[in-house]
Amino acid sequence: MARFELKLPKMGESVAEATITSWLKQVGETIEEDEAILEIATDKVDSEVPSEVDGVLVEILFNVDDVVQVGQTIAIIETEASASTAASAPKVEAVKQEAPVQAAAEVAKTVVAAQETTAPVISSGERFYSPLVKNIAKKEGIAQAELDTLPGTGKEGRVTKNDILAYLQNRGAQQTNAAAPTQSNGVAPAVNNTVKPKAQAVPAIVSGEDEIIEMTRMGKIIAHHMVESVQKSAHVQSFIEADVTKIWNWRKKVKADFMKREGENLTFTPIFMEAIAKALREFPMLNISLQGDTIIKKKNINLGMAAALPDGNLIVPVIKNADQLNLVGMTKQVNSLAKKARENKLKPDDIQGGTYTVTNVGTFGSIMGTPIINQPQVGILALGAIRKMPAVIETPEGDFIGIRYKMIMSHSYDHRVVNGALGGQFVLAVKNYLEAWDSNREI
């Protein structure tokens, strides 16, 4: 038999870790290739992790609610191997079996002793401790009160394995120093063994009629990323108004035939996406990402499309190689990703690789917005609601007032690498593409 290490797969360039939400298979169960073993959640999408091989699940290395880094081994699957391979090292296998038995006995004694002297550590509403941290605390005799004062470097201030091991190392050194008396007067030197307590959250002051609602896991992660983006990027906005009367009338004329022929609803979104992809091709320095002091110019134009989830949160599925799609292909991609988002069926590949993001704030009636950049990108465009507006229309015979369909576009960009001229020229190019729409275009 051979042992296969199942690792947490890569789920996007900005996703470094995931939280295990449930195990779909238990130790001892038979697994087929591509069968889902567990469910995970990231700040971008919830997903299943499939098996890469056929075999039997023999070991689960993480528990539900544990945070796992991309590339870490999360489970062991035993697979069939050739007879010659199995027979080649029988003595080694015997040694391997004997060693864990002895190690297990020692660990069991240590755990029992720790449990008799130290109350078990529990997670509270304000602080979460992973099973690994809890076990280390029990083994080393760290009480709940002592652990609660330990500063954490993990997500949301969590205490990681490295945090508690570093604390134990320092505590051991401090205890050694404190126990050693001085040669001159026999007085032990004073040792500062105080750990700076973690800042406690200020309790909410509510009346008896108020309702306290705990933020969801994804809500907390999104909030953290929004604050991080504002702190990292120098956000600047440019606003421009586009006359989309030609597009309004053209879509009204062709949408019924388009539905009959393609079986797809033709919305305004794919039309706007097409214009944005053309503008990014014209201004490639907006199709970049910034990592530290390094600018990475992206070869492909992958448009992120902000979409609403059933729970009210937003997610950004990605249209790959958007500049290579015709309007039919763009429409099918937009509708497919929007449907997957509504049904919570987006896969990790659907939300990774974005190079520029578009959000349609007009869906909710807003005429403009100041969107926050989706890191590590450097720009995001908000599309406002289309409204009928009085406008001055210039003709060879003179100017007159007419009713036109207008839309305001709000362009947020990172002023660290995108200056005002580039940011303004880009959104102007989008406006020009939309206003130059061919009213006789065939699809």
List the topology elements.
Layout: E1 2-7, E2 17-23, E3 30-31, E4 36-41, E5 46-50, E6 55-60, E7 67-69, E8 73-79, H1 83-87, H2 90-117, H3 131-140, H4 144-148, H5 161-179, H6 217-232, E9 235-243, H7 245-262, H8 268-282, E10 288-291, E11 294-297, E12 303-305, E13 307-308, E14 314-315, E15 318-319, H9 327-342, E16 356-359, E17 379-383, E18 387-395, E19 398-414, H10 420-435
Helix pairs in contact: 2-3, 3-5, 8-9, 8-10
- Strand-residue fraction? 15-25%
Number of strands: 19
Q: Helical amount among residues, as a percent range?
A: 25-40%
H/E element string? Answer: EEEEEEEEHHHHHHEHHEEEEEEHEEEEH
Q: pLDDT below 50 for ≥5 consecutive residues: which ranges? A: 82-99, 179-196
What is the makeup of the main sheet?
A: 7 strands, mixed
User: Mean pLDDT across all residues, rounded?
Assistant: 82
Span between N and C termini? 58 Å
Total of DSSP H or I helical runs spanning 4+ residues? 10
The coarse silhouette is elongated
Helix/strand class: alpha+beta
Radius of gyration computed on alpha carbons: 29 Å
Architecture overview:
The chain has 443 residues and is α+β, with helices and mostly antiparallel strands. It has 10 helices and 19 strands. The protein has helices spanning 83-87, 90-117, 131-140, 144-148, 161-179, 217-232, 245-262, 268-282, 327-342, 420-435, and strands at 2-7, 17-23, 30-31, 36-41, 46-50, 55-60, 67-69, 73-79, 235-243, 288-291, 294-297, 303-305, 307-308, 314-315, 318-319, 356-359, 379-383, 387-395, 398-414. The strands form 5 sheets. Strands 9, 12, 15, 16, 17, 18 and 19 form a 7-stranded mixed β-sheet that branches. A 4-stranded antiparallel β-sheet has the order 1-8-6-3, with no helix packed on it. A 4-stranded antiparallel β-sheet has the order 5-4-2-7, with no helix packed on it. The two termini are 58 Å apart. Mean pLDDT is 82; it is low at 82-99 and 179-196.
